[in-house]
Amino acid sequence: MALLRFMIKDYLEDKELSGLAPRTIQSYGDTLNEFSRWLVAEKEIINIEDITPPVIKSYLLYCSKERGNTVVTRNDKLQHLKTFFRYLEDEDIIGIRSNPTHKLKPAKTDKIIKVYSDEQIK
Q1: pTM (whole model) above 0.85
Q2: Which of 32, 93, 117, 122 is most buried per CB count within 10 Å?
Q3: Does the CA dihedral 67-72-99-6 come out positive or negative?
Q4: pLDDT digits over 8-67, tens only?
Q5: CA dist., res. 107 & res. 28, Å (int)
Q6: Per its record, what are the GO molecular function terms (predicted)?
C-alpha cells in the first residue's frame, strides 16, 4: 500500500535530481498537491491503489467546474498526472494495468488559425 503524499515527494525529488527546471518541478508539485488535497477532501483517498480512471475524470471535472480551469490547463494537469503515474510504473510501484491515466486522452482544444492580410504577406 503506497501513500500518495510520500510518492509525490519521491517523484518531485526524482525530477529535481534529473535536472528539470525549478519552475517545471513547481508546476508538477502544484498539480499533484492540489490533486492530493482534492482526493482526501472529496473522495477520502490516500492510497495510490484507490485511484481509478473515474476518479481522475472526476478531478478534471472539478478543475473545470469548481476551479474554472481552461481546457489547456486541464490538459496540462492531465499530462502532469500521466507523467507521475508513469514514474510509479517505472519504479514498479504500480503496474501498467493499475495506471489510472493509461487510457485517458486530453480534451480537444480549439485551433486558432492565424490569417494574414495582403499587406502582412508582402
Answers
A1: yes
A2: 32
A3: negative
A4: 999 999 999 999 999 999 999 999 999 999 999 999 999 999 999 999 999 999 999 999
A5: 19
A6: DNA binding
> Domain of 60?
4-121
**Per-residue DSSP letter, 94:** S
Using a pLDDT cut of 70, give the percent of the chain over it: 98
Yes or no: say if 61 and 74 are a contact pair by the CB < 8 Å rule: no
The region of weakest confidence among 6-10, 62-66, 79-83, 106-110 is 106-110
* CA atoms of 50 and 52, how far apart (whole Å): 6
For 81-108, b where at least 16 C-beta lie within 10 A, e where not — what string? bbebbebbeeeebbeeeebbbeebeeee
CA angle 11, 58, 33 (to 5 degrees): 30
Tally of domains in the chain: 1
Q: Which three cell numbers stand for residue 107?
A: 480534451
